[in-house]
Amino acid sequence: MRQNIIQLALCGLAALSTAAPANRRSTNNNVSDEFQSIDGFPAPNPQQLLETERRAHGTLSNSTPPDSVDPDTIISLQVIAAEEQFEAAFFQQLLANVTNNEAGYEIVGGNARTMGIDALTAIVAQEELHALNAINALRHFNQTPVAPCLYNFPVSTLDEAIALAQTFTSVVLGTLQNVVLNMGSHGDAGLTQGVASVIGQEGEQQGFFRLLRHNIPSELPFLTNSVRDFAFNALNQNFIVPGSCPNINQIAALKKLHVMQPLTVTQSFDPKKSVNETVQLSFSLPNGANPQDYEVAYINQQNIPFVLPYTVLHQDGQTLSVTAPFPFGEHLLNGLTILAIVPTSAVGGFKSNQDVADATLAGPGLVVVN
Ligand SMILES: *[C@@H]1O[C@H](CO)[C@@H](O)[C@H](O)[C@H]1NC(C)=O
Ligand SMILES: *[C@@H]1O[C@H](CO)[C@@H](O)[C@H](O)[C@H]1NC(C)=O
Ligand SMILES: *[C@@H]1O[C@H](CO)[C@@H](O)[C@H](O)[C@H]1NC(C)=O
Predict the structure, then answer these.
(1) Relative to the CA of 157, which ligand 2 atom is closest?
(2) C-alpha triplet 109, 112, 113: angle, nearest 5°
């Protein structure tokens, strides 16, 4: 039995590594197309919900949320709804690509292909239920849930798609920690049990993604923390098609999150390839600001954030290209590191990752090592 499972996994790995890169081509990012084949999501009827639950291998909780919650918890539920709808759309498109043998998405080997399709089928339905759980709670608290948007996924092979899934799942795993913290500190500890169960669930997915990419399944002893502001900015900057969201601008709770400018990691760090412990970043300075007004903040594992200065490589108007230290050896920066450009004037006061997010000019830059 054990032998067979290992053979299956190896089969999957071999298939991934031989997947040929395909030319990137634009897809029809129509939100109704994206969701039409998945049982009425995000508003399934009872029969459709039953089908989703069958594919997810389990049910939504049958317990009733409390009568009311703190306004801060509404922010958390809206962020979860936004993230999980995005994840459902991503894995639905990935499942379609694998099922249709799109170029770059062929899984060679019948057993590995069947296992891949079975895994993705469950993941799509499980992400839908994560989203529906938040959506139902928001309705219960008389809130309008954020509706799905159109998304752009910057990938064109199975390997790229799994790498992207690994990155955004790390951010979700970090952000749900922050949701638990916020719910607990605002008197809504009753909702944290369900959220904690999703952290474990997404951790199981992550182990699978990591194994497919030849990484050991467990990333770190203590997963990197994130906060809601980083997760929501990453979603907006990287995946949401601008102007495609039906109601995101009317969701007051989401307006409470700090708005950040994009921070592009133009050269990441790989201990097997990088000569120096550095990363290269690009971002825009506000009008009138000087490069030395800002530094880079680093968030990794459960450690207190630290800040280091960068060196300017190139300035073109307000756009800066910089090289920044990536002290991998000193801090053992495995797994997800979140980078943020913060004002030098704020640096002394960072006690938490929320402090960093609240002061961030540009971010999050996402680096995943090993
Ligand atoms: C999106 O797809 C649906 C169903 O296929 C179609 O009715 C609708 O017109 C499309 N919308 C856009 C903007 O293309
Ligand atoms: C699915 O395949 C298309 C065509 O290669 C690609 O543009 C799209 O990004 C892929 N989506 C995912 C989630 O892999
Ligand atoms: C590595 O650092 C050295 C010394 O600072 C520098 O000369 C070299 O260009 C760097 N190499 C890369 C690839 O960045």
Answers:
(1) 14
(2) 80
Q: Which domains does the chain have, with CATH numbers?
A: 2-256 (no CATH), 264-369 (2.60.40)
Distance (Å, whole) CA 357 – CA 349: 12
Task: Quote the Cα angle for 84-24-234, to 5°.
Answer: 35
How many whole angstroms separate alpha carbon 105 and alpha carbon 160? Answer: 10
CA 276 to ligand 3 centroid distance, Å: 6
Question: What span, in angstroms and rounded, lies between the C-alpha atoms of 22 and 4?
Answer: 31
> What is the Å distance from ligand 3's center to 357 Cα?
30
Separation of CA 312 from chain center: 29
Measured from the CA of 31, which atom of ligand 1 is nearest?
A: 1
Taking the whole predicted model, whether its pTM rises above 0.85 is answered as yes
Distance in Å, CA 273 to ligand 3 centroid: 13
pLDDT tens digits for the chain (370 residues)? 344 444 445 455 444 544 433 333 334 555 656 565 567 899 999 999 999 999 999 999 999 999 999 999 999 999 999 999 999 999 999 999 999 999 999 998 889 999 999 999 999 999 999 999 999 999 999 999 999 999 999 999 999 999 999 999 999 999 999 999 999 999 999 999 999 999 999 999 999 999 999 999 999 999 999 999 999 999 999 999 999 999 999 999 999 999 999 999 999 999 999 889 999 999 999 999 999 999 999 999 999 999 999 999 999 999 999 999 999 999 999 999 999 999 999 988 899 999 999 999 999 999 999 9
CA distance 348 to 351: 9
CA distance 214 to 204: 16
Cα 144 to averaged position of ligand 2 atoms, centre (Å): 30
CA distance 167 to 108: 25
Report which bound ligand comes closest to the CA of 280: 3
Separation of alpha carbons 147 and 244, rounded Å: 10
Among candidates 297, 132, 148, 126, which has minimal Cα distance to 235? 148
| CB 26, CB 156: distance < 8 Å | no
Residues with CB under 6 A from ligand 3: 275-276
